[in-house]
Amino acid sequence: MIKIAPSILSADFANLGEATAKLSGWGADWVHFDVMDGNFVPNITFGPPTCKAIRPHTELPIDVHLMVEHPGDWIIPFHDAGADIITFHVESGEHHLHSLLQRIHALGMKGGVVLNPATPIESCIHLLPDCDLVLMMSVNPGFGGQKFIPETLHKIHQLRQEIERRNLSVDIEVDGGVNPETAKACIDAGATILVAGSAVFHAPDPKAMIQMLRCE
Fold it and tell me: What domains appear along the chain, each with residue ranges and CATH number?
């Protein structure tokens, strides 16, 4: 089944606990938690204290997407704050990608890497056996509400073919500009997890929207 991970980047920041608590009732599968440091991307969002603050409000897995330089510095703080899944960018400057994935797994969390829209899938092929998931950015990271970049679909398809060729169990997550139309295209290309921020939190009926995004 396709998983839907609403991004609380699009939620009401003044009521993050309440917004997070609603996700389970809406039928969401994960809580997507975007971390931006103002260096890797031109924006600053949440840190471990915010993750810790929302943790009591949901039993859903918290999916932490690190858009930061030096992601290795944040593995233990986010683990201690209650994160269940951590992904980091191959473009972050981290030199020991396998080691970072191993550290995430050693702490009992799922882990994976993230590719920006212009980054070829070849940058993560050698990491696939150590990944639980690969997150494909379908917009340039840094801000919510951007339009989907169609060229991402070819990358999703390429990666799905490579995963199947190697007989691996690796999810493909897509983040950016996801709506009912682009969701179907992503699923058809091989995606298994969809991040949706504005589409869910700004919908008149978020529960119905999440069901639409599954395209079932």
Answer: 3-214 (3.20.20.70)
